[in-house]
Amino acid sequence: MKPGADILQELQELNSLLTGMDRVNVFTVPEGYFETLSAIILFNNKVDLGQAVPQGYFDQLADNILNKIKAQQSIETSTEELRQLSPMLYSIQDSNVFEVPAGYFNSVSDAITAKLRPQAPVVRMGIRASFMKYAAAAIVICFLTLGIFKIVHKSIDGAQVAMTLDPSIQKGKTMNDKQFNDALNNLSADEIAGYLEKNGNEADIAELSANIDDNNLPKQDDYILDQTALEKYLSDDNAKQTAN
Amino acid sequence: MSEQHLDDKELLFQFKDPSTKERAFTRIIKKYQEKLYWHIRRMVVTHEDANDVLQNLFIKVWNGLDNFREDSQLYTWLYKIATNESLTFIQQQKKRASVSLSDVENGLSNQLKADKNFDPNKIEWKLQLAIQQLPDKQRVVFNLRYYDEMPYEEMSRMLDTSEGALKASYHHAVKKIEDYILNS
What we know:
The complex is a heterodimer of chains A (244) and B (184). By secondary structure, chain A is mainly alpha-helical. Among the domains of chain A are: 5-30 and 33-44, no CATH class; 127-238, no CATH class. Chain A is built from twelve helices and no strands. The longest helix of chain A is centred in the N-terminal third of the chain and has 29 residues, at 57-85. The radius of gyration of chain A is 58 Å and the shape is rod-shaped. In chain B, 75% of the residues lie in helices and 0% in strands. Chain B folds into two domains: 1-98, Orthogonal Bundle (Rna Polymerase Sigma Factor, Chain: A); 100-184, Orthogonal Bundle (Arc Repressor Mutant, subunit A). Chain B has helices at 8-16, 21-44, 47-64, 74-97, 101-113, 123-132, 136-146, 152-159, 163-183. The radius of gyration of chain B is 18 Å and the shape is globular. Chain B has 184 residues and is mainly alpha-helical. Chain A binds chain B through residues 70-71, 74-75, 77-79, 82, 85-86, 88-89, 92-93, 95-101, 104-105, 108-109, 111-113, 115-116, and chain B through 22, 25-26, 29-30, 33-34, 37-38, 41-42, 47, 51, 54-55, 58-59, 62, 115, 117-118, 122-125, 127-128, 145-147, 149-151, 171, 174-175, 177-178, 181.
């Protein structure tokens, strides 16, 4: 190997013995060394990227890619299918005529979770409360029933009434208003309920007796055994009075 | 993290944990509410009815998600419930009105016509009227394929019907709708 001209000139200026010497490489290199050097360097110096791969990533990678491909193919397929079936419907596929109230989708979850919250417990009324309700109704009925006898003026066949009415009803007829009200106030709910149970039918009979023609009064057995008999006579009596 | 990107498996895991159940449920609602709402709305037409059906759907999800076997995708399961709830709602309307199914369909058509934006001259409204003329199940198939671009394979699992039958039903529906629009 010959040195370059500038190097020779420099050596001549230095009057060096090196000016006349050829450059000879006395060192040897293994055969094929340089051809394999790069591979050896890469093999011996692997690069560490330092990035962690999620666990199971490679196990799921194939399925994930396939699913994405299928989804993409499906969209392309359904679109292509529609384009071939009906270009008209294809052209309006993205149109939407329906409106949604503003902010609706922001409120859906709150509305649903509110419905899922436990409802307030419903407390049932006790038996005592139910009894008091019926007792109050009985008091009103009793008041109305006894009050009717105070208003009625027609005479009643004493013998018939004695056979069918409870003495308390007869006693009530002789009371003035104050005595009547005081007696009523002193009655307990049990007493009122017991009275109505015992004398309800008889009270109806007494009212009927005071207001209809005695000759047409039905037999006592009819009142006691058949409730419809009383209703029939009442309706017949009303019809007669209307006709008159 | 956006609800749209939450993994269904993670949501189901959180739902089964009592300490995160309600939070997971809310996320499921937010993730799927719009898709399910529109699927329902196209069946029952009015917003008020769609809202009722949608809420009933998610209440059923709350009560039944613990028993979800994960043998299908979560959204497939949700779509199935939404479809059943919509069809049940329509059937109940029919019974309440004591009229034939065709009259119920006319009822839904009338509800379309009652929409304040209804325009009989616009093809988009004609399309909706045409869809209401389809039988219930065919309407479901058409909506799932046309609007949601659901694969036949997935539709088959959801509706328990063969892919071939679904494809035939969809093709037939497209032709019927086209004829209705062109002749209306």
